[in-house]
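Follow-up to my earlier ticket, as requested here are the two runs.
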Amino acid sequence: MPEPKRCAWVSSDPLYIAYHDQEWGVPIHDDRALFELLILEGAQAGLSWITILKKRAAYRQAFDHFDPEKVARYSDARIAQLLSNAGIVRNRLKLHSAVTNARSFLRVQEAFGTFDKYLWRFVDGKPLQPNRREGQALPARTKESDALSKDLVKRDFKFVGPAICYAFMQASGMVNDHLVTCFRWPQVTQPLNRAFK
């Protein structure tokens, strides 16, 4: 059976293929999953996404399965412990930012009810559908990611520049950037109009 047509950025790594085929671009409305993705996208800064995917299981264990209430209470001693964990990216600034972001995340939940409600306002409650074609470069940022980044920074989030925010928006399904020739494009496109409530 021939391999299905995928987006051009997918490598031959089975982990990357599985991520593309099952997760990337699927709308996420679960706050814990959104928090995990936000922290992992920040950890990716300066690195490849496959590096983070290979460390995701270790991150989940190290970060209490991305429970924002637990991460928000991490002490300097806990950060020092994380710095010795070879399973994750051992960058002091990124680790401190995860704690800062957990605290900011909880404040957003308190203000909006859920992080999901806050987040999806930036795309008017439904995924953007740019209908990308082969040979068309994916943007590093958009006006929507610029707006999200600016607002997150205002709320004291760290490692949330416009490019990181756009990668986050792609991964969380806020934008469907699958190529129209990719086998996932129609699968991800079908539920778009009823994904947000």
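Run two:
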Amino acid sequence: MLVERRSHEGGRQPDARAAVAIRDARLVLPLELRAHTDAIRYVQRLAPVRRTFECVAVHELLERCAYDPLAVSELWWRGHERALTRLRIHGAEAGDGAALSVFLGHVLDELDDFSAGGASFESWLDAIADRFAAG
């Protein structure tokens, strides 16, 4: 069993209200461990949104998501209402915290595909919501 225990700044625990993304562990594990992904839960807790990226264009923000947790939080803040609306249109349980965490994980797992596709942020996010709602 692999358990990560990080100490938190000032000994505080992360904010329980923070958005959580349940990610695909296969994307980060070495090849020899990928057969065990059913026993690993890869969870990413988003940082609180700050004003750091409020004036940054979405394309630059998406690039920064690869290395800056604050950029990831800003991206989710900008797109979550649209994503929730799209999921509701499909009848998905958007209010369910667990389902939303899985959806957010899909969004983050597909960040690399955004720049390759050439679509707008909104249409890219809509496509992920459509696929997620379809099951």
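The only thing I checked on run two: Helices lie at 58-64, 69-89, 97-109, 111-117, 121-134. Let me know what else you need.
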